[in-house]
What does this fold into?
Amino acid sequence: MAASKINSLTIIKHQPVSNSDKELVQMIADDISRAEIAAKLELSERTIEAKIDRIRGRYNCRNVVSLVMLFKRNNLID
It folds into this structure.
């Protein structure tokens, strides 16, 4: 497990994080539902799921909890 943390931290330092990724992960951290996020961003729930999956894959996170923790540890979200 420690290796995945190191990989994720290395990836996040060498790959710019878009404002839309930060916004989406912040909404997840704020416990906003996928349906509410979709309505707020005027996108479908399926599009939101795809975006979350893409972000998780980019940073090698197995679930949204690890994604939120990664963004918090790197001061990308509140």
